[in-house]
Task: structure prediction
Amino acid sequence: MSARVVFGDVVYEPGGRFGPRVQTDYQLVVLLEGTMRVEVDGVVREVGPGEVTLLRPGGRETFAFSSERKSHHTWCAVHRQLVGAELRVACRRAAPVLPVTRRFEQLMELGLGMPLTAGTQSHGLIDALGLAVLQAYLFTDARNARRDTDEPDALRRALAWVGQEGHERTDLPTMATAAGVSPTQLVTLFKRHLGTTPLRYVWENRTRRGAQLLRETGLTVGEVAFRCGFQTPFHFSRWVKQVYGVPPRRLRADSWGAAHADG
Result:
């Protein structure tokens, strides 16, 4: 990573806590699974799966995660020296929590997929990617401000349901009931705000969780597939290849090989 931009990924066990700390960067924290409660200068933010929160320099923060299950989140920290005056003003005015859009998700995946040595070889690229992530958040906020506020609430309920029921069989009517809208309305919400369909979002979300298990455990591909709600190992493998460009065993081998080289 760059000295001025850092991408990260962490899983907290049930009951995990972090802080208090004083934030030094502009940091975007994305919850993928579980629950996350962030207190910033005495004000509480509840962040659900599929949501991202913006943390600004100077804030005193404390994190509390689900007491019942693991919580998985990623982040992008951008040093304040990189953030110009116009962006700082936009960050002060931005909503503290937003749903993750497909564009934002793709930028985060690109940053998280960068080798650890990339920053030493191409500072400009990593810095630009960090700023792009921050601008994608601000763009989402500006776009949401022009829409009916009830729609993000329904989307938030759907994303929270996905996070809590991540290993169960699912279908569009069940998701729509959890969101409190019709299946047609739910499809419209996902396409408008996230640039994808509800069921595609489910399988991509489960694929990311499966990739995390491949990297961090010795579970077989079949066991990972079962735990993440896939019907068969082949179904899981097809989605891993679609999202990451390689089959599960190659994804694990590449990850473990990089970790061994770093050690």
Summary: Residues 145-150, 259-263 have pLDDT under 50 and may be disordered. Residues 5-144 form a domain with the Jelly Rolls fold (CATH 2.60.120.280).
